[in-house]
Specification:
The protein contains nine helices and four strands. By secondary structure, the protein is mainly alpha-helical. It folds into two domains: 116 residues, Cytochrome Bc1 Complex, Chain D, domain 2; 117 residues, Orthogonal Bundle (Cytochrome Bc1 Complex, Chain D, domain 2). Strands 1-2 form a two-stranded antiparallel sheet. Helix 1 packs across helix 5 and helix 8 packs across helix 9. The longest helix is centred in the N-terminal third of the chain and has 15 residues. The mean pLDDT is 93.
Length: 269
């Protein structure tokens, strides 16, 4: 059940933002968040927006909510095997979920990119009043319990395909590219316009956690742990853009078993 932030906070309606030097980046960051390909085209290689994963502009509980998140950075990142800042994490989202590398590698996002700073400003605005260093209670809730995880090799992508047709296709389409419903359209789940194979959602268990607790959109939580994992296995058996720097990930660490697109890669040890 969705219990928090039913109506997303909107910085464009915040009358306390009186200094344009601060207000404009925050408002632009919000616009980037809800329509990334249009607002940040030079850093977007597909048709995925931040809001496609972080529902209600990052404010829907059990949907990768980002309210209060700024106070948790810097933090250790397992994929990078180092401490990262919030702008580092935003850069990673542009590179992977937004497939910035799909536009080539001549102009890639950095922590100083104006779009990255704007999204950072929006997330900092969302975190006003929350404690520094204290994990918000809604963070890390989009995960299936370890004892409920099925070994990747035993997941049933064919069963997942049937469940997808029954429970997901009405919004995401049989082709996975999204169906226009009013003024909303679900983001593409595979193919050239989707996230690339280095994104967090390209990991089966990560995607399964999102599906389990955030989907279907109108009845989140109605799928079982097993069903969510089978659907994730189906989606992540589909082709998607290649992230060109996968060999740099997990340096000196073991590549997670559910990082299925890394199977043909050798991470440096």
């Amino acid at each position: 059940m969705v219990t928090a932030w039913q109506v997303p906070l909107d910085p464009t309606k915040d009358k306390t933002l009186t200094d344009p030097k601060l207000a404009e980046p925050i408002k632009w960051g919000y616009r980037i968040f809800i329509d990334t390909p249009h607002e940040a085209p030079r850093l977007t290689g597909g048709k995925v927006s931040c809001i496609n994963c972080h529902l209600n502009a990052g404010q829907r509980e059990r949907s990768l909510a980002l309210v209060g998140i700024a106070g948790m950075f810097p933090e250790f990142n397992n994929r990078a095997q180092r401490l990262i800042s919030l702008p580092d994490r935003i850069v990673d989202c542009f590179l992977r979920s937004e497939n910035a590398t799909g536009r080539g590698t001549d102009e890639l996002p950095t922590t100083g990119s104006k779009e990255v700073l704007a999204v950072n400003a929006y997330l900092a605005w969302l975190s006003r009043g929350y404690a520094m260093g204290a994990n918000p209670g809604w963070r890390n809730k989009n995960a299936i319990a370890p004892d409920k995880l099925t070994p990747v090799a035993k997941l049933d992508a064919r069963k997942g395909e049937g469940l997808y047709a029954e429970r997901c296709a009405s919004c995401h389409g049989a082709d996975g590219q999204g169906v226009q419903i009013g003024d909303k359209k679900a983001g593409p789940l595979w193919g050239p316009d989707s996230w690339n194979d280095g994104a967090g959602a390209a990991r089966v268990y990560t995607l399964a956690g999102i599906i389990r607790y955030a989907m279907p959109y109108l009845s989140p939580g109605s799928l079982t742990d097993e069903e969510a994992q089978d659907i994730a296995a189906f989606i992540n058996a589909k082709p998607r853009p290649a992230y060109p720097f996968k060999a740099r990930d997990y340096p000196g660490a073991k590549v997670p078993a559910d990082a299925v697109y890394y199977r043909a890669e050798t991470a440096p040890q």
